[in-house]
Amino acid sequence: MTDEIHPLARGFDAAADAYERGRPGYPPDAVARLVEMLGLRPGRAVLDLGAGTGKMTRLLVPSGARVVAVEPVPGMRAKLAATAPGAEVLDGTAEMLPLANGSVDGVVVAQAFHWFDAVRALSEVHRVLRPGGSLVLAYNLRDESVPWVRRMGELIETTTGGEAPSQHHGWRDGVARCGLFEPLETHEFRHVHRLTMEGVVDRVASISTVAAAEPAARAALLADLRVVLASDADTAGRDEIDLPYTTLLHVASRRSLEPGSAGLVISVNQNAGGVPKPPVDGARILRKGLDGDGHHGPLHGAERDAVCLYPQEAIERVREDGHQAFPGAYGENLTLLGIDWAGLVEGDRLALGDAGDGPLLELTQPAAPCQAQARWFTGARIARISHAVHPEDARWYARVLCEGDVVPGTAVRLLPRG
Q1: What is the pLDDT of residues 201-249, one digit of tens each?
Q2: CA 85: distance to chain centroid?
């Protein structure tokens, strides 16, 4: 888990020109739907995250909304600034957004979410979105029902061992492990990108795995592609070639809960020990903690500190102070949303699940920060999550009164005292 860009994505620095020439934009009906769903208009603000050369950015500017475009790759960012002069262009990553809490009304990620560390990115998107805001993940997928397009895909697969992670690296699994957003709703559109033969070659050259391939292998792939285009009945001898796509808009609304006595588990985190604890699909909570989870340190392993808890609201406050914070960063097992953290005291009980037969936890003591977390804090100031200094932003330990299962999205209730 890192705030550095994916190693393959660095290849876009040298491929920015080919990307701009060969990649499609987005169909007008899809953009119109996106603008409508996010309510983009003067007085509103939208973030285009992982904006690349501005293929989506330039289409958002006419909405009249303030458009902020964040792109970490220098070569792509230079193109972005040139092609979308109406946008505010910033250097940054999805895992550490250079924006204030609650500063935008919508976030768009076009052809880029698969590059992100999903839980960190979603935590940051939740932080910068205002209540009521939404996230849109836009993808153009080539229509490989067309024979020459399918053959092109086979050449890419044979040469590189697989295209970029958009279809193969499980980004949907990462989304499913985070309960900060409502489930994705998908809208589908048809799209055709008209290119010259060399434009199609640029389209393939701009693919991350192709850009990162050995020069000889890349040159051979592009030569084979030219042979396909020169011989296929649908492309041979044509000045312009229609490359068909399906455009998908995956839309998720931000979960916004007022702090109180009812909330949600938004991430279940575990590993063999140490920090950060990455998110998992779910776990069974046993008397001594999550099944399969481990702890480091002499204080851990007893039943009274079986489960460590932390709120998303604290993550967002700590991030606004300039430190790194995300679900699992500080070693908590359950990241929660919607519980009034500042009011918690020893002995408070949290019931998980809707049916009344889920896990039951009892708070035992605040968890003191340790040097294992120091790397996340500017100046190693771990006291930022100390209960003595910031009780609203400190972790809590809990014992397990009733065992049971937990998954992201599980309901949480703070039971009445006494």
Answers
A1: 998 988 878 888 899 999 999 999 999 999 999 999 999 999 999 999 9
A2: 26
Q: Per the omega criterion (within 30 degrees of 0), is the bond before 276 cis?
A: yes
| Residue 105, burial from CB neighbour count under 10 angstroms (0-12, 13-18, 19+) | buried
pLDDT tens digits, 81-95: 999 999 999 999 999
Query: What H or E segment, with its residue span, contains residue 332?
Result: none
Q: What is the pLDDT of residue 11?
A: 55
CA gap 121, 86 in Å, rounded: 25
Total-model pTM: 0.92
Q: How far apart are CA 147 and CA 157, in angstroms?
A: 15
Query: What does the DSSP assignment read for 183-223?
Result: PPEEEEEEEEEEE-HHHHHHHHHTSHHHHTS-HHHHHHHHH
Write the DSSP symbol of residue 346.
T
The SS3 call for residue 256 is: coil
C-alpha torsion 88→90→95→96, nearest 10: -100
pLDDT value at position 1? 32
The reported pLDDT for the residue numbered 21 is: 84
Residue ranges of the chain with per-residue pLDDT less than 70: 1-15, 162-169, 296-301
Residue 7, CA distances (Å) to 77, 115, 124, 210 in order: 17, 9, 21, 13
| Alpha carbons 301 and 109: distance in angstroms, whole number | 41
Q: What integer pLDDT is reported at residue 295 of this predicted model?
A: 73
Q: Are 114 and 165 in contact (CB under 8 A)?
A: yes
* Spatial strand order in the sheet of 185-195: 88-90, 66-70, 45-49, 104-110, 129-142, 241-253, 185-195
Retrieve residue 414's tokens. Answer: 């703070």
**Domains identified in the chain and CATH numbers:** 7-253 (3.40.50.150), 261-414 (2.40.33.20)
Contact present, 158 and 165 (Cβ < 8 Å):
no
Q: Where are the beta strands (DSSP E) in 270-342?
A: 279-280, 283-286, 289-290, 307-311, 334-339
